[in-house]
Amino acid sequence: MGDRPIKVLIAKPGLDGHDRGAKVLARGLRDEGFEVVYTGLRQTPEMVVTAALQEDVDVVGLSILSGAHMTLVPRVCALLREKGLGDVLVAAGGIIPDDDVPALREAGVAAVFGPGTTIGDVAAFIRANVRALD
Amino acid sequence: MTADREEAARRGSALAEGALGGDRRALARLLTAVENRTPVAEAALRRLHAEAGDAHLVGITGAPGAGKSTLVAALIGEVRASGRSVAVVAVDPSSPITGGAILGDRVRMQAYAADDGVFIRSMASRGHAGGLAAASVAAATVLDAAGFDLILLETVGTGQSEVEVAAAADTTVVLEAPEMGDEVQAIKAGLLEVADVVVVNKGDRPGAQRAAAELRAMLTATASPRLAGADPTATARTASGGPAAAPARPGPKRPEVLVTTATTGEGVPELLAAIERHRQGLGVEGGPAPVRRARAAALVWALLGDRVRRRLEDPALADVTAETLDAVVRHELDPYAAADRLLGALVGDAGRRPEGRDAGRQTSRG
User: Do B110 and A1 touch (CB under 8 A)?
Assistant: First the structure.
């Protein structure tokens, strides 16, 4: 026990169609030994949280490039808590202005990864901050 | 040690009760325990076995990109329209290098997030060959006990010989793409042989109907009455070894061959009807069908193997076990004699005293 792979959900909530970054991250985390559930484009917060619940993921990664992060991300965090998934690590990435980061952290996001972040940075952050694996 | 076991039993039964009571979070957590084969999972599965057995387990298999996930999504819609609940266990391959995996089957199944009658779980194969994950069957048992009417087991993209799903499922659906090849492909041994229903998907592509016709001709016309026996569905497959096993050889199956276009839903109602017809032929409602008997046997044999090994690695027997293995390495003892000797040690440990540590050495190399 404890040596099982970390399970990560990579989701793209909202309406932007730019999923290259999410796919590259999914692939990179696979290469880091994570089990990555990829759910594709145009997810509602409800869809993201249902997937997180059914898959029992340790981490939810949200990729948003549309500018809708201030609406979508806090909603995902609130729904996760509502469903008893408060121990799931939430990270956001994509195009998110620095000014918005404090509010997102307040909402429950553990980290915001912008352009220039390496896969190694993301993997190290997850390993250091993920909930205890049972 | 004992405290750990008690804690595991407590958590296992709490998760099992939660899953039985409709708590989806408990169900999901339990599936994680099952996947990781923890003591919590064992405790829960002991509780849940008695509750399982009513669901229809349907395997969906076929080559990568044949449309398995899209067809599963279409089937979910069809099953829900009939008022039944449905769970999916979708397996994708783990990296043999890093152990990581991309689980991408949900991409096609997103329409059901708000529907409590649908539960989808992705699973990495974690090095298990054969098309499923090691824990897929146990996961299906959990979902069965949780009350889902239909359970779809979607394999990794398979080649010609990953036939494990046929032993795990009551009904096995094999997908082919229209460009599956010529008639010789259809008579090769392997995956097509275990199909209860064959589906040529991507029916909107040219050649789909012709491929279906060729498959139908080769798969349904070849079985001689002598081999097939009286039952045209010929379910006696994996030599379940029941006492009244009349034919020496199980007869070949005669699968229905259908054409679907999963993206539009065309042919999907007919597929669900064919799956249902197969279930009726299985007699699942009555006594245990041969496939279920075989599955029960496989589960018990696998556990027996695990337990024998665990007992032999226990402190009480670890020395004898290590010594015996060393003797095989030194070519002083052959592997067959070693197995006999360890079995003897196990029986001795359970009750009688062992006859002596060197029992079985007479077959050693001179």
Answer: no
Domains contained in chain A, CATH given? 7-128 (3.40.50.280)
Contacts of A84 in chain B (CB under 8 A): 25
> Count of CB atoms within 10 A of residue B72's CB?
23
Token pair 């139908």: residue: B216
Residue among A114, A120, A72 nearest A93 (CA): A114
Which residues in A lie closer than 8 A to residue B35 (C-beta atoms)? 4
pLDDT in 10s for each residue of chain B, 366 residues: 578 889 999 999 999 999 999 999 999 999 999 999 899 999 999 999 999 999 999 999 998 989 999 999 999 999 999 999 999 999 999 998 999 999 988 888 888 888 999 999 999 999 888 888 889 999 999 999 999 999 999 999 888 777 888 888 999 999 998 876 666 676 676 788 889 999 999 999 988 998 898 888 888 765 554 444 444 444 444 344 444 444 445 667 788 999 999 999 999 999 999 999 999 887 655 566 788 888 888 889 888 988 898 899 989 899 999 999 999 999 999 999 999 999 999 988 776 444 444 444 444 443
